[in-house]
Design brief:
By secondary structure, this protein is α+β, with helices and mostly antiparallel strands. The chain has two domains: 68 residues, VC0802-like; 71 residues, ACT domain (Alpha-Beta Plaits), CATH 3.30.70. Helices cover 33% and strands 41% of the residues. It is built from five helices and seven strands, in the order E-H-E-E-H-E-H-E-E-H-E-H. Strands 1, 2, 3, 4, 5, 6 and 7 form a seven-stranded antiparallel beta sheet that branches. Strand 5 and strand 6 form a beta hairpin. The two termini are 15 Å apart.
Length: 142
């Protein structure tokens, strides 16, 4: 199982800089990031090499952060790679609440990070379909 850090910030210049500075000083490496802003507030979602250290560093600096279990699934980086996973979830009635992905350096594989309501069921069906679920440690070793 892997973890994502979600940071809630005002939608103003310099907020991402503050978050990344805190993580840099805590010696936390960011593996993936997504930012979503809505009018006054934004959410920064981070996949980091040390989720507990990131969470503690952010909280100690007064930053509103949340650590959440997510699924990081290894997939082929080719047309239809994402569709395979979406189809599995659709057929099993598992809703994808949030998702983002990134390509691994070998450019043959990618990682899809998904947030689903039924996390254990989702992991089970993905494994049954022969897909690899990455742990925190496996993500950081990519």
């Amino acid at each position: 199982m892997a973890h994502q850090i979600s940071v809630f910030v005002e939608n103003k210049p310099g907020r991402i800089e503050r978050v990344t500075e805190i993580l840099m000083k805590a010696d936390v490496n960011i593996r993936a990031i997504t930012v979503m802003g809505t009018f006054e507030y934004g959410v920064i979602k981070l996949l980091v090499d040390k989720p507990e250290a990131a969470y503690e560093a952010l909280k100690s600096q007064g930053v509103t952060a949340y650590k959440r279990e997510i699924i990081a699934v290894l997939m082929d980086d080719r047309p239809g790679g994402l569709h395979r996973i979406a189809k599995i979830f659709g057929q099993k009635k598992i809703n994808i609440e949030d998702a983002y992905g990134f390509v691994i350096e070998d450019k043959k594989r990618a990682v899809l990070v998904v947030d689903v309501g039924k996390i254990q069921e989702a992991e089970k069906v993905l494994k049954e379909e022969g897909l690899t679920i990455l742990s925190d440690e496996e993500i950081y070793s990519l």
